[in-house]
Write a structure and sequence with these properties.
The chain is built from ten helices and 25 strands. The chain is of the alpha+beta class.
Length: 595
């Protein structure tokens, strides 16, 4: 699909209850309304001299009543982060739209290629339509409301699915049925999309397609194998040395992007990155595949993601290439439009404006009346296809460690080069301790914020929690040889030494062995599929209600749950030859968070 420019005039009004979507295939404005003018300024000069507000193209292309023709390579794209729409609370969305419309109209009315991209998580993951207990996210009603909202901007839109967009578990029985409704309502022939927004400039998006079938947390953004294959083949067909420029859109970022992540949320729950726990087939190679594609194909110039509900007021809300093994790609976090969803109180959307010479990334600040702020200018080097970056510091940037997870670096002074024996003899590791080391098998472990965290061995991105704060507090940590390492000489020693990570303390005889997972990783995949957890919670509520109806509303039953599977080093449920003595306890446990 090609969307180089659109009809002029006002956007259509947004009527949330409407069921009809505006036609996305809008026409091109008549060139007769535009007059020839001197050749346009270079991209660098354009950035430095022109106001970054909503009269950007008016100031740049027009003098009095005459406007020069924009180049076929010029484009403007507005990017919306996690919306989490609640049909009862729509004011922030209407205000945000009013801030963005002048930006789009400024470009649209002058023949510049325009588009709108949503990064998914369209509905609120709550019951928004009382008395129904059904979650709003992922339902047909949610997607129709979002489609009407996007259509009201009056420009072609694209959308990728996030981790909440297939959450219509009461309406749809399978992920496939839910995905079909998502694609149909948003006019998507496939879960992924590709749109040519300007000459040699492509927008590409990938959608999360797994929710009910998630092996671990349903909040992992899972790009299926078919989309991943298509993506790798597609960008390979658009080489940078032929002038192609690709901008990628996904709900979560790829591992290795270097963007700020939330350790106490997405890291410990194992849902930071695309295919964080291996995606469709729990294959960790698919987690690394995205950054490998970026490194290999210099045509990928920008990658935009949401998911973390963080604003743009951090220096690592945008990360840049250049010595970071990220190809020629700039990665950018996109914030939330609504107050309910933002974690830091800021309400932001993004604008990308570009030409064949480069592009700029801006913030629309919805808490400041739609103020447009320039965050970064990227200029292409035609010879090497590298991206030359000029970041624009701003007084709004926070420079503390708010919400920041630690990422090891070779020169950070925190590396333990010989991790053998006791690592913290005085047991003093606490929330201020930062260190990291390699296990003999290549796994990278470290301590940050009072936890032991595992990091990816190739990108050093955080993978997940190995030891929690309460388990590590006051204990000593040791790396010891396991009993399977016999004495060796010469070439016999060229094998991976097996080690064990153990916790202990001097005041007790208790020793904890931190067992690696069967795939060799250490981080704990402890968050279960949301669909199963929700159904279990409903059964508990039903049992409570049933008991009160049977024995009286004044009763307060203690409702427990019993379930499997069970995790242990024991290979059988009962002790051998004695079925009266269980080897694994099947005693019912309270599944609620301890008070």
């Amino acid at each position: 699909m090609v969307a180089l420019s659109l009809v002029t005039g006002c956007a259509l009004a947004w009527i949330p209850s409407a069921v009809h979507r505006p036609d996305r295939a809008l026409g091109r404005p008549a060139r007769a309304a535009l007059s020839a003018a001197p050749a346009r300024a270079g991209f660098g000069r354009m950035i430095e001299e022109v106001d970054q507000g909503t009269d950007f193209y008016k100031d740049r292309l027009c003098e009095e009543d005459e406007c020069e023709l924009p180049g076929a390579d010029e484009f403007t794209v507005v990017i919306l982060g996690d919306l989490h729409m609640d049909p009862r609370k729509l004011d922030d969305y209407a205000e945000g739209r009013d801030h963005i419309l002048p930006v789009l109209q400024d470009a649209q009315q002058r023949g510049v290629g325009v588009g709108l991209v949503s990064l998914g998580d369209l509905g609120e993951s709550k019951a928004c339509e009382p008395p129904s207990a059904e979650l709003f996210a992922g339902t047909s009603r949610c997607h129709q409301m979002a489609a009407d909202y996007f259509g009201s901007f009056g420009v072609p839109y694209e959308v990728v699915g996030g981790n909440h967009d297939l959450e219509g578990i009461d309406e749809f029985g399978t992920d496939e049925e839910n995905l079909e409704a998502f694609c149909r309502i948003h006019g998507k022939p496939t879960p992924h999309f590709v749109r040519q927004i300007a000459d040699k400039t492509l927008l590409v998006g990938l959608t999360s397609t797994i929710f009910r079938k998630a092996r671990y947390t349903s909040h992992e953004v899972s790009i299926d194998d078919a989309q991943l294959r298509w993506f790798a083949e597609f960008v390979a067909s658009k080489p940078a040395d032929e002038g192609w420029r690709v901008f990628v859109f996904t709900h979560a970022p790829p591992m290795g992007s270097g963007l700020r992540v939330l350790q106490e949320n997405h890291v410990v729950n194992g849902c930071c990155w695309l295919n964080h726990s291996g995606g469709q087939n729990a294959d960790p190679r698919t987690t690394r595949k995205f950054i490998e594609v970026v490194r290999e194909h210099r045509c990928i110039k920008g990658w935009f993601s949401g998911h973390f509900h963080l604003s743009h007021d951090y220096e690592d809300s945008i990360t840049f290439p250049g010595g970071n093994n990220r190809g020629s790609c700039v990665f950018a976090q996109v914030g939330c439009m609504t107050t309910r969803s933002t974690r830091d109180g800021k309400r932001h959307s993004r604008i990308v404006r570009g030409t064949e010479e480069g592009f700029e990334i801006c913030t629309v600040n919805h808490k400041k009346g739609g103020e447009v702020r320039l965050d970064a200018t990227i200029t292409y080097d035609g010879e090497s296809h590298e991206s030359i970056v000029l970041a624009h510091p701003h007084e709004d940037y926070d420079h503390d460690l708010w919400f920041q997870a630690y990422t090891p670096a070779s020169e950070d002074g925190c590396y333990i080069s010989s991790p053998e024996g006791v690592l913290n003899a005085d047991g003093s590791w606490d929330e201020k301790t930062v260190c990291w080391w390699h296990m003999a098998d290549g796994a990278v472990l470290g301590v940050h914020d009072g936890m032991i965290i595992e990091y990816d061995a190739t990108t050093l991105a955080p993978l997940g929690m190995v030891v929690s704060k309460d388990e590590l507090a006051g204990r000593q940590v040791a790396v010891i040889d396991s009993a399977l390492n016999p004495a060796c000489e010469g070439a016999e020693c060229n094998v991976v030494k097996e080690q064990a990570l153990v916790l202990y303390d001097d005041d007790s005889e208790e020793v904890t062995v931190i067992q690696p997972n069967e795939d060799g990783s250490y981080w704990r995949k402890i968050v279960r599929n949301k669909m199963h957890r929700m159904r279990e919670q409903r059964r508990v509520k039903a049992a409570t209600k049933w008991y009160k109806e049977k024995y009286g509303a004044d009763k307060a039953p203690s409702v427990l749950s019993s379930w499997g599977p069970y995790t242990s080093t024991v290979g059988q449920v009962y002790r051998k030859n004695d079925l009266s003595l269980p080897a694994i306890s099947t005693k019912a446990l309270d599944s609620a968070i301890p008070k």
